[in-house]
Amino acid sequence: MLRCVASDLQLSDYLQRILTARVYDVAEETPLDPVPSLSVRLANTVLLKREDTQPVFSLKLRGAYNKMVNLSAEERGRGVVCASAGNHAQGVAPSAGRLGCRATVVMPVTTPAVKVDAVRALGATIELYGDSYSDAAVRAAELQHEHGYTFVHPFDDPDVIAGQGTIARAGGADVRGHRVWGEHELRSAAIRCRTGRGARDPLRGDNS
User: How far apart are CA 101 and CA 68, in angstroms?
Assistant: First the structure.
């Protein structure tokens, strides 16, 4: 059974990890695009954080890379494993390629072929197993035990959460006249991102 350690940290711990995360080795600073019609309807400024413009079309690259770049050379040498039906795998695979380690991805047999092919094209070894993410996660845990791989959780890991949390750090700098943390301070803002299964709000600690 894979134990979640994410709940062991305090908010201040996460903020520090977010500020020092190395996601921009592979991720890009994505724009905040205004949504005029919705802004008028809500009588507020509504902006969309365009993580679909990342190289793998998802913010999951941020968390996966931040987890893996913080592994020791020995851990990276043994390789990593994850369970995913798409977005998380497309974060893990290129991160492994950048860091020179082997990535094994367990995907449910029900995963569309286009997603399987996309992950394989990014250099990961694919194993199809089970009918659901839960089945794939069980198999990934078995491979972790058998081969000494490091399991890269899609959301319940401090380094993954910190990597995903950089979306808020980057977002504030894109808003003219508003700033984020330390140097900058937002007058009023809510940044919500939903991507794939179980995305976690790093400041609330819940899944969203």
Answer: 9
